[in-house]
Design goal:
The protein is mainly alpha-helical. The protein has one domain. Helices cover 63% and strands 12% of the residues. It has 3 helices and 2 strands; from the N terminus they run αββαα. Strands 1-2 form a two-stranded antiparallel ribbon.
């Protein structure tokens, strides 16, 4: 249902999988990715800049919400 439908989408999805170490954290809350690092990595990998600009912010928002929900669940 949510799988990428284009080559660019697949490339961005692959990039997202590589961003685990690029989290911005404030206290115990994840605020997002280091987008500068994300864009540099994507560029180095040959990912289309427009696709990154369109897709990364939306994926980042979902990631932040889900990760923070998991952190909250672990705190009880």
């Amino acid at each position: 249902m949510n799988q990428p439908q284009t080559l660019e989408g697949w490339q961005v999805w692959d990039l997202v999988g590589r961003l685990g170490g690029q989290l911005r954290i404030a206290g115990r809350v994840v605020t997002g990715w280091d987008m500068g690092a994300a864009l540099q990595l994507g560029t180095a990998l040959g990912v289309d800049a427009r696709a990154m600009g369109e897709l990364l912010p939306a994926i980042e928002a979902v990631m932040v919400r889900k990760v923070n929900e998991e952190i909250g669940d672990q705190d009880g």
